[in-house]
Structures are given as structure tokens and as C-alpha cells.
């Protein structure tokens, strides 16, 4: 578990590990299989997508080189931007809520003030093991007005207060499912970072008279910063790539979840419903670049704070 | 990797601390709310897997129905449509064993190689793979489909297995873990004894790396077991579906013109699909505990 903690490996330390010069090519014995599959399953699709994005299948003339036309098209495509805005809103609201809950749970579990700590940790992590499809099917049933809990609660209240599939609540309903799936996973990442805090620090803090919240603020949160940065990056990637949850919910809320509800769903339907492979590849590339750029900025900001 | 830094924090705190924290009932109660949040959907799933389709509609969601039909539902799940569910389960197992197993092996070898050897192209290797951690896998799924369909690989198990073999994050974990737990002196000693690097890896290093390997295995198993997007786009023949895609297909049967709802099978099938992965997870969790926190009495 603790292996999830971001490493503090200084370059000096790496050099020390490899200080003995080996026969030069020995390292490739270990690394070539990964590299080979990596080229086939990662580099090649990436290059192929870039290639595709420069062409258009036109009625006249067939497949023609169009330069950056597809990108221009995407940047002026309201369907793409509506989906983008949706996942961006999702990112701004759901990610902070989920990460704060996860951090609170990790601090609670690390505090040694709980009864049955181990039990809490395992059970709260459990939803992570549930496949997203099963999680969404399950929550979909629970949300549903056929035999879901929502229906029961509405019956009991004698009203239709709860409407998880209504347009204005859809994103919240999806956010709840995603939070349910990943809050425990993030909790475990934070918890394993907290576990690496050396005891001396607590002892020193105690001698200085630090208590409770002071210890959390001065020791625990700084120690968890690296883990928070990593969890934030993964959550950003997850939000921008949102697909499984809306895709599985779609049959239940056909009018609300359109085929361009998220950029990833848009890329999917462009390819599989519209046969617009070139444009689909363009959308995938744009989303990939935006995601990687934001992840990079978060990482930079996170590590800069760490240096201070 | 942090073993050296985590020697018994709790125990030493207890011995030295003036303020050994007393157990807090209030905090435990708050966390019980959390526990409910995590558990209620799973409990709902179990309870409803015991109901007939009629009971599903007529009884309260968190109460048992008039009959206890769990076994009937399980039998129906496995026999519906000539036992297609069993086929899906087998496919999922295939993808997990070959995909996640292969991913763990490749990531372990490469992470170890990068941590312990200097070789031409090493820095570039690093830069590219670590860059890949930030590129979301699903962004590549559609391009991968387009490429694989050119190669005639779509609608075969290979289209699922090959992309699953890559785990940049796994490589990163093993790299970190190797630096922390495999002493270079040990490798030098083995070298003096005349062992080849591969032999040293498989006889000596792999044992030291076990907790790290188990962790990577856990994450790749969960990822392949739960994989949905990739098989959804790669496969069109239900004979190759994994459980996730198959269950969703069952679920979509309830909508549309020729609707033939089999809610009880979707629910029971979902329950059966999560039991193995939760079992594996709990099993591996214990494995880690002994591996990683050896000497720590925290839990």
C-alpha cells in the first residue's frame, strides 16, 4: 500500500544506486519487452491518430490531406465545447468534494482515535474493486423510479423531490457514482502517505506543545502534499475522460445524456455511429493534450509548493 | 519502499506519548456514516439478487421480498442464452490472467531494469514512459481501435490483451520500490559469484520485490477486470465480451422496441461479477499487510 507514496528519489540517490558501470546493454534485457509492447499499444496509436487528424474523407476526392482543418472544425464545434464545459464543471465540483472527503477519512483513520480502524479502511476502499459498469448499473437501479430507493423515498414523502435523472440533477447523480467509486481509493493513497511520517516528528511536535489540528496542519498535511498532487492529477484525468458512467446510464436517461454529453462520448459516437474517424481522432487528441497540459501544471504547482 | 521509515510509529507513540489519543466515539460515529455510504449500494445489490422479477417491483429496495430466489437467480444467470454468462466470465478471466499477469511481469522487469542499470537510451525511455502516465488511457482507445482494425486485430482477444499489457504506473511503482528495497551490494555479490543478471533477478531480487509486485498486480487486475471502454469498442461478437460489456448488454435489453427486461439477471450477474474481484482484493490486501508493514503493529 505504501508504495503509492510519491517517491522522494533525488538524482544523487539514483546515481548512487547505479554507481557500478554494468555491461552497457544489460539493462535492455529487462526493459525491451515493455518497450516493444509500449510501441505497439501506445506510440503507434498516438502517431496514427495524429496522422488521421490531418485528413478528411470528402464526398468528392475521397480521403484528402486537409492540414489542420479538423482542429479548426473542433474549435468551432459547439457540441464539443458543450461536452468540454460539462466535464470541466464536473471537475471543479466533484473532484474537490471527493478529495476532501478522502482526506478527512484518511486523517480519521490515521488518528488512532477510531474503533476498528482496519475494518473502516477495508470497507471504504471496497467500492474501488467494483467494476464501473456494475457500480453504474447498481446506482442506476437505485436512482430509478421502477423499484429503486429513490422511488421508495418519493412514495414515502408523497412527492417527486428526488429526480436523479432530471437534466439539472444528472451531473450530480454521476458525480455521486464517481465519488462512491473512488473516494476510498484516494483515501488509501492519502493514508499511505500519512503512514510514512517519522515518529520523531510527532514527538518533537508534542514537546513543542502542538495538539490536534496543529499537528494536522503542520505535519500531516505537508507530508501528504505529494499524494494530494498525484490524486488530483488522476482525478483530473478521470474527469476529462468521463465515459463509462454516462454511457451506461444513457439508456435510462436518453433525453438527458446525448451522444456528445462528454468529449469522450463524442469521440466514441463520431467513430462508431458517424464513421467520422478523422474527426474522432482529432477530438481524442485535443482532449489528450488538454488533459496532459493541466496535469502538468498541477504537478508543477504542487512540487513548487513542496520546495518552499 | 518506506519500510525503514515506518517502524512502529503507533507503538513508539504509545510508549512515549503523554497524549496517547483516547478512542473517540463521536469520530467513530461520523465514520460509520461513511461506512454506510460505501456499503448501502452493495447491500442493495445483495438483497435484490435474492428477489424474483416480480418481487423487485413489489417490495421495498432494502427489504427482502416474499421469496428468497438467490439460488434460482444464480442458476438462471448461468443458463440464460445457452450459458453466455459463463463464457463472459471465462473471457474476463482470460483477459485478467494474460493481460494483468503480463502487465505485471513487463512492468516489473522494466522498472527493475531502469532502476538498476545504466544503458543507452535510458533517459529517453524514462521520459517517454513517465510522460505516458499523464496521457489518459481512454484518450488512446479510439485511435487504438482504428489502428487495430487496420491490422485486423479487432474482435479478437488480442485487441483487449495487448493494450492491457502496458502499465506505465506499474513500471513507476516498481522502479521506486526497487530503489528502496534491492541493495546494489547484493547484486554485486551475486555478480562476483558469476550469476547472470537474469538469474540474479529471478532468484534474489524478485523476493525482495514481492510486496511491490503484488501491489502492481492488484492494480492491473482491478483495471482489467473492470475494463469497459476498450472491449466495448474493440469487440462486436458477444462470444468475446468480458462480463462488464455483457452485463451492460443485458441491461440495455430492457429498453427499446423489443424490450425483454431481465432485471433479476442483471442484478445477480453483477453480484456474481464482483464477488471474485473483492475476494482477490481482500486476499491480496492481507498479503500486503504482511509484506509491507512487517514489523509494524499499526493494525
UniProtKB/TrEMBL annotation, chain A:
<keyword id="KW-1133">Transmembrane helix</keyword>
<feature type="transmembrane region" description="Helical">
    <location>
        <begin position="30"/>
        <end position="51"/>
    </location>
</feature>
<feature type="transmembrane region" description="Helical">
    <location>
        <begin position="119"/>
        <end position="142"/>
    </location>
</feature>
<keyword id="KW-0813">Transport</keyword>
<feature type="transmembrane region" description="Helical">
    <location>
        <begin position="162"/>
        <end position="183"/>
    </location>
</feature>
<feature type="transmembrane region" description="Helical">
    <location>
        <begin position="223"/>
        <end position="243"/>
    </location>
</feature>
<keyword id="KW-0812">Transmembrane</keyword>
<keyword id="KW-0472">Membrane</keyword>
<feature type="transmembrane region" description="Helical">
    <location>
        <begin position="277"/>
        <end position="298"/>
    </location>
</feature>
<feature type="transmembrane region" description="Helical">
    <location>
        <begin position="87"/>
        <end position="107"/>
    </location>
</feature>
<protein>
    <submittedName>
        <fullName>Sugar ABC transporter permease</fullName>
    </submittedName>
</protein>
<feature type="domain" description="ABC transmembrane type-1">
    <location>
        <begin position="84"/>
        <end position="298"/>
    </location>
</feature>
<keyword id="KW-1003">Cell membrane</keyword>
<comment type="similarity">
    <text>Belongs to the binding-protein-dependent transport system permease family.</text>
</comment>
<dbReference type="InterPro" id="IPR035906">
    <property type="entry name" value="MetI-like_sf"/>
</dbReference>
<dbReference type="InterPro" id="IPR000515">
    <property type="entry name" value="MetI-like"/>
</dbReference>
<dbReference type="Pfam" id="PF00528">
    <property type="entry name" value="BPD_transp_1"/>
</dbReference>
<dbReference type="InterPro" id="IPR050809">
    <property type="entry name" value="UgpAE/MalFG_permease"/>
</dbReference>
Amino acid at each position: 500500500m505504501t508504495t503509492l507514496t510519491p517517491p522522494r528519489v533525488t538524482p544523487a540517490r539514483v546515481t548512487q544506486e547505479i554507481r557500478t558501470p554494468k555491461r552497457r546493454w544489460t539493462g535492455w534485457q529487462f526493459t525491451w519487452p515493455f518497450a516493444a509492447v509500449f510501441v505497439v499499444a501506445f506510440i503507434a496509436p498516438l502517431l496514427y491518430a495524429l496522422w488521421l487528424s490531418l485528413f478528411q474523407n470528402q464526398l468528392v476526392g475521397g480521403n484528402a490531406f486537409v492540414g489542420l482543418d479538423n482542429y479548426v472544425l473542433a474549435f468551432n464545434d459547439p457540441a464539443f465545447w458543450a461536452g468540454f464545459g460539462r466535464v470541466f464543471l464536473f471537475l471543479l465540483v466533484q473532484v474537490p468534494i471527493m478529495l476532501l472527503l478522502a482526506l478527512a477519512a484518511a486523517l480519521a483513520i490515521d488518528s488512532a482515535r477510531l474503533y476498528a480502524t482496519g475494518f473502516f479502511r477495508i470497507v471504504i476502499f471496497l467500492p474501488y474493486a467494483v467494476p464501473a459498469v456494475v457500480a453504474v448499473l447498481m446506482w442506476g437501479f437505485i436512482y430509478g423510479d421502477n423499484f429503486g430507493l429513490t422511488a421508495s423515498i418519493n412514495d414515502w414523502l408523497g412527492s417527486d423531490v428526488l429526480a436523479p435523472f432530471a437534466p439539472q440533477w444528472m451531473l450530480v447523480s454521476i458525480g455521486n457514482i464517481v465519488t462512491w467509486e473512488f473516494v476510498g481509493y484516494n483515501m488509501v493513497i492519502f493514508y499511505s502517505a500519512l503512514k510514512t511520517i517519522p515518529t520523531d516528528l510527532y514527538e518533537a511536535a508534542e514537546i513543542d506543545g502542538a495538539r490536534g489540528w496543529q499537528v494536522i496542519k503542520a505535519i500531516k498535511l505537508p507530508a501528504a502534499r505529494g499524494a494530494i498532487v498525484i490524486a488530483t492529477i488522476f482525478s483530473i484525468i478521470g474527469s476529462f475522460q468521463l465515459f463509462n458512467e454516462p454511457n451506461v446510464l444513457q439508456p435510462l436517461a436518453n433525453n438527458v445524456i446525448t451522444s456528445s454529453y462528454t468529449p469522450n462520448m463524442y469521440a466514441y459516437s463520431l467513430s462508431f455511429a458517424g464513421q467520422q474517424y478523422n474527426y474522432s481522432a482529432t477530438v481524442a487528441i485535443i482532449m489528450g493534450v488538454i488533459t496532459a497540459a493541466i496535469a502538468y501544471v498541477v504537478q508543477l504547482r504542487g512540487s513548487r509548493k513542496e520546495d518552499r | 519502499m518506506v519500510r525503514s521509515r515506518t517502524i512502529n510509529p503507533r507503538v513508539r507513540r504509545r510508549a512515549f506519548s503523554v497524549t496517547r489519543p483516547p478512542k473517540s466515539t463521536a469520530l467513530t460515529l461520523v465514520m460509520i456514516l461513511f461506512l454506510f455510504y460505501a456499503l448501502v449500494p452493495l447491500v442493495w445489490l445483495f438483497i435484490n439478487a435474492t428477489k424474483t422479477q416480480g418481487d423487485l417491483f413489489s417490495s421495498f429496495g432494502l427489504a427482502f421480498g416474499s421469496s428468497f430466489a438467490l439460488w434460482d437467480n444464480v442458476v438462471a444467470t448461468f443458463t440464460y442464452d445457452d450459458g453466455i454468462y459463463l463464457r463472459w466470465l471465462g473471457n474476463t478471466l482470460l483477459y485478467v490472467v494474460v493481460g494483468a499477469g503480463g502487465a505485471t511481469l513487463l512492468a516489473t522487469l522494466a522498472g527493475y531494469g531502469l532502476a538498476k542499470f545504466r544503458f543507452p537510451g535510458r533517459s529517453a525511455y524514462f521520459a517517454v514512459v513517465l510522460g505516458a502516465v499523464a496521457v489518459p488511457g481512454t484518450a488512446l482507445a479510439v485511435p487504438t481501435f482504428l489502428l487495430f482494425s487496420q491490422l485486423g486485430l479487432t474482435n479478437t482477444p488480442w485487441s483487449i490483451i495487448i493494450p492491457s499489457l502496458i502499465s506505465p504506473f506499474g513500471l513507476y511503482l516498481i522502479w521506486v520500490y526497487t530503489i528502496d528495497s534491492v541493495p546494489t551490494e547484493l547484486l554485486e555479490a551475486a555478480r562476483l559469484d558469476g550469476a547472470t543478471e537474469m538469474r540474479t533477478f529471478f532468484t534474489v531480487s524478485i523476493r525482495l520485490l514481492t510486496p511491490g509486485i503484488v501491489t502492481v498486480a492488484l492494480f492491473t487486475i482491478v483495471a482489467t477486470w473492470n475494463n469497459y471502454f476498450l472491449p466495448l469498442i474493440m469487440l462486436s461478437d458477444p462470444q468475446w465480451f468480458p462480463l462488464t460489456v455483457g452485463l451492460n448488454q443485458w441491461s440495455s435489453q430492457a429498453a427499446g422496441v423489443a424490450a425483454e427486461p431481465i432485471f433479476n439477471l442483471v442484478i445477480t450477474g453483477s453480484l456474481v461479477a464482483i464477488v471474485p474481484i473483492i475476494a482477490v482484493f481482500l486476499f491480496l490486501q492481507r498479503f500486503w499487510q504482511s509484506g509491507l508493514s512487517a514489523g509494524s503493529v499499526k493494525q
